[in-house]
Amino acid sequence: MAKFFGTDGIRGEYGKTLTSDIAFSVGNALTQIKNKPKVIIGHDTRLSADVLTLAVSTGIVQGGGSVIDVKTIPTAGISFLTQSERFDFGIIITASHNPPAYNGIKIFDCSGKKLSDSEEEFLEEFFSTTHTDEFGGTYQEKITLQKKYILHLLHSTDVKFDGMTVCLDASNGASFKIAPNVFKMLGAKVNKIACKHNGAKINKNCGSLHIESLQKKVLSTGADVGFAFDGDADRVMAVSGSGEVYDGDKLLYILANYMKSQNSLFANSVVGTSHTNSGIMVALNRNKINLIRTDIGDKYVIEAMDKMNLSLGGEQSGHIIIKNYAQTGDGILTALKICEIMKKTNKTLDQLFDAKLIYQENINLPVKDKFKIMNNESVTALSNKISNEIAPAGRVLIRASGTEDKIRIMVEYPDRHKAIFYANQIKSLIEKI
Predict the structure, then answer these.
(1) Helices in 92-177 by DSSP H: which ranges?
(2) N or C: which end of the chain has fewer CB within 10 A?
(3) Catalytic site residues?
(4) What is the pTM for the complete model shown?
(5) CATH class of 5-148
(6) Residue 323 above 70 pLDDT?
(7) CA 177, 183, 184, 189 torsion: positive or negative?
């Protein structure tokens, strides 16, 4: 089991659980598994982005590798450029949806895919050693490469958004400039929220985890649709013209139905996770679309898509992978494709969504030792007891967050009050422990 890597790269509070020494080790380890690697690197807007970028780059250069730094760019931009520009590795310095004090390191292979669990574990084996090349490598800034990612986004749709009003919340993160510019280039009128290079306020009361401001903006401006990204823009949430929130489950459903109608949904199947609402599964099955569930984590969704050669997958959190265009979750791309569907069908989001969701009570509980909780027999016993009581109509899911010191509790049941009651039972037990 990897010591440093979690479900989405290395993640931690800068200066405490994530340090410059760790970042250096990551960069240098890459030179120990690949001779003189070519690496592209970028970051979001966090205040610790520069120091971690330089630390990773120093590790690479000391080991004889070459680094191209494209500065502030969404995670999907690094994934795309790694593949299209034929780099050996791509690195994005970001803590995604986490608070400003946190940061992280995500690594992509030459195909633009995140490293697998086994590849991350293998890389960690070299953290304890340092390779120093006789002559060293090179470091170069090349922000102009961002234009190739922007062109990729523009070419991902054949529709112009003339006449559409779109609200965008960039979470003061990596998409602060690229997202509004792309939508404007495609003809949309854009209203902006939190579209600033402001790492001190990244994800703070804005973005995909704080959708309220976007709802107000959409309603007050009469916009057709709104989109909220997280700090590195690999997630997206949407708001319809009526103010209804569309999470990853709902967006996945809309995309799946449209792609099936266009014969572009391979095997008429879509990949979700254990968290995907069962109401989505029922509605997809009604439309003769199969839902395949994986563990929570976008890289597990992608691994399942690769294994079965499927074209669409995603998570409730807003990670959507459209394989014809991207090797990882791309919030901007997903937003563009949703607008494309709205344009081509001449329908609103509310008209495109007809699934009946089953109520889910979700609780994110901060804890000191999430592994202690997950291994506690009392928690397991209560979970099993509740699962038996609400089966077959309901489900219980208790898991440790892969990116934060939290336990995530989900109870899915048609009766809202009972779902809340059972979820709070679990919460109370964990708090006592």
Answers:
(1) 117-124, 146-154
(2) N
(3) 96
(4) 0.95
(5) alpha beta
(6) yes
(7) negative
